[in-house]
Amino acid sequence: REAYQKGDLVLVHLALTTDHEETISESIMGEVVWASTLSQEAQYAVGIRFNHMEKEKPKLYAYIKQMEEMS
Fold first, then answer.
1. Structure pTM?
2. Which residues pair with 34 in a beta bridge?
3. Which residues contact 61 (CB under 8 A, 6 or more apart)?
4. Chain-centre distance of CA 69, in angstroms?
5. Which of 8, 15, 55, 59 is such that its CA lies 20 to 30 A from the CA of 25?
6. From edge to edge, which strands make up the β-sheet containing 23-37?
7. Which DSSP state fits 46?
8. 26 Cβ contact list (under 8 Å, min separation 6)
9. Which residues pair with 45 in a beta bridge?
10. Is residue 11 a contact partner of residue 29, using CB atoms and an 8 Å limit?
11. pLDDT tens-digit readout, 20-63
């Protein structure tokens, strides 16, 4: 619900449940690469780039890659 700008650094907290009922809970820093206002007041969509995820959060990275291959 905040108006982010390109280049802002954000901390994203994720809690994902895998197909094997395992929970992956991670916090990761990212950079806003685009931001736009949605049709509803005070709501925004943002694109976030996560650098170095493969090295810093390997379990999260592996799960995301697995999801990409399935879609």
1. 0.76
2. 47
3. 53, 54
4. 17
5. 8
6. 9-17, 23-37, 44-49
7. E
8. 13, 14, 57, 59, 60
9. 36
10. yes
11. 888 999 999 999 999 988 877 778 889 999 999 999 999 999 99
Residue 48 Rama label (left phi>0; alpha psi -120 to 50; beta): beta
Give the residue carrying structure tokens 């509803």: 40
At 6, the pLDDT band (50, 70, 90 cuts) reads: very high
DSSP state of 70: H
Q: Answer whether 30's CB lies under 8 Å from 49's CB.
A: yes
Rounded to 10 degrees, the C-alpha dihedral 30/33/36/38 comes to -40
What whole-number distance in Å separates Cα of residue 68 and Cα of residue 62? 10
